[in-house]
Amino acid sequence: MDSFDIRNNVLYKVFASSREITIPNEVLETICSNDMEKGERPCIEVKYKNRIRTINFGSRIQNISICLYKYCFNLEYINVDVNNMHYTSIDGVLYDKYVKTLLHYPANKKGKELILPSSVIRLFDSSFFYNRHLEKVVIPNHVRIIDDFAFEESELLKEIILHDGNLEICHGAFGWCRKLEGVIKIPFNIKKLHTMFIGCGKLEEVILPEGLEEIGTDTFSGCSNLRKLVIPSNVKKIGGQAFLECESLEKIIIPRSVEEINSEAFDGCKNLTIYCEVDKKPKTWHKEWNSSRCKVIWGYKG
pTM for the full model? Predict the structure, then answer.
């Protein structure tokens, strides 16, 4: 029988003995410690979480912590009482009451392609974390925000199509999607990338927008199959290890606009030749910007 540690209407622990658990209706919120780094580890204790296939929430719960379900890798379905004033569920997926924010898509929910309700504008932090079935994701133009680590470690995800409208993409949104492949076009309004494709070892090409200003730390780190990438002429900064171990990348042009390159930006790019439009290394580039001693052509004119 499932058991729960509940204190003053707050859920602290879950001991799951069955595949389907029902959170008692006296629970108003699940504990989430503010001093823990968000998303790193559970703060509510869930014992035997891999047994859980379904979670049922009642009408009274007001605050559901991501820590309750993030690491339930066999979770297939979330159900919320229709009378709940704060949350709702559609086809086993958890949303806010107004279906504006997708909060959690169960990791073991069946289906190869994502279909979003037309009201959704935000995909919440880690909402598709460790998904085990999705292969294709099309982000429609009504979505405005993809939060931190939204699709991190989606096991089978091969294709992502982003709309070219006004879209904010946060840190690590597609990190460690190891089967992600082909070509991805980044929306025109994006100014900064940060760890967006870290660990995407099959990704072949990313088309960057002309208005991009920063390629942040670890953006393409571990993209060992990345073969083509053009750095736009408005980029001012390239972060540390931005292209770490991009072993298939053979040519990259650093435009004159780049004012700062941090350490080990191209570390492990063993087949790369770097073409720099400036005549010599600017003082603002880190002394170990080219730590792997890739071949460099200065004063490149195109």
Answer: 0.94
